[in-house]
Design a protein that fits this description.
By secondary structure, the chain is mainly alpha-helical. About 75% of the residues lie in helices and about 0% in strands. It is globular.
């Protein structure tokens, strides 16, 4: 009887290993983000970008896996936010600073731009975390408020990706250009601009094959020309922002009318 009681107590004080999987993925993303910074310190820009892209992929997986396994928790959500701040707030800012903003004639201003980017990323996460439990209209469910920090981090690195494809174009590496561009992305993250969210987008059965074919083609392009493909995706996203603003307010008017 005593052995059975002890086993029951041990069972109550433990939980299945699969509950840890989302947090393990989050920690893996954090490790890749920190490694991206290390590669930046070494001047290995391609590896730095590669590790940050892996981190972004893992960041998109952990929350979905947590919901699929029904193991969401406040602990996991806070861990994910802290990892996101390091991976897509701090890491891109430091990488761009080491790449170009740290040049002597603009060093102080460059560091200021990097710090502002990280601060705006933190503000974006804080607003997202406090707004998760707030009630939203049916229209708001299809939009983010501001540019998500993961996308913002990738957007910030677009000039570096472009320079790897076109190393002879010196303008792309100009610290003045990158400083202004980094600040623009920073303010887009902390702004209240409505941006499209793909979470609630549905695909009709008739278009499934077409969508899969497009995704397959995208994967091929990512393998063959990864940086150019990501830059094009970044450009398309930037173009989508004013469109999302128009669509958002149009739908709000329709909902209120």
């Amino acid at each position: 009887m005593e052995e059975k009681t002890l086993k029951k107590k041990e069972f109550k004080n433990s939980f299945p290993f699969y509950r840890l999987i989302p947090n393990i993925i989050t920690l893996a993303a954090l490790c890749f983000g920190l490694t991206a910074i290390k590669c930046g310190l070494d001047g290995n820009w391609e590896k730095s970008l590669f590790f940050l892209i892996i981190s972004a992929f893992l960041d998109g997986m952990d929350g979905r896996i947590a919901r699929y396994l029904n193991v969401t928790s406040d602990y996991g959500a806070n861990l994910d936010s802290l990892a996101d701040f390091v991976d897509f707030g701090v890491a891109p800012a430091l990488i761009i600073y080491m790449w170009t903003l740290g040049e002597s004639h603009i060093k102080s201003l460059g560091w200021g731009a990097a710090v502002i980017f990280a601060i705006c990323g933190a503000m974006r996460l804080a607003r997202f975390n406090t707004g998760i439990k707030s009630q939203k209209s049916s229209v708001q469910n299809f939009f983010f408020t501001g540019v998500p920090i993961t996308i913002g981090g990738i957007l910030a690195l677009a000039p570096l990706m472009l320079s790897l494809e076109f190393p002879t174009i010196n303008f792309i590496k100009r610290p003045e250009f990158n400083g202004i561009y980094l600040l623009a992305i920073a303010f887009a993250m902390s702004s209240k601009l409505p941006t499209f969210s793909i979470k609630h987008i549905r695909v009709s059965k008739e278009n499934v094959k077409l969508v899969l074919a497009m995704i397959g083609a995208l994967i091929v392009f990512l393998i063959v020309k990864p940086w150019m493909t990501i830059v094009i995706l970044c450009l398309l996203y930037i173009i989508s922002i004013p469109i999302s603003v128009v669509v958002f307010y149009k739908k709000i008017k329709q909902e209120q009318g």
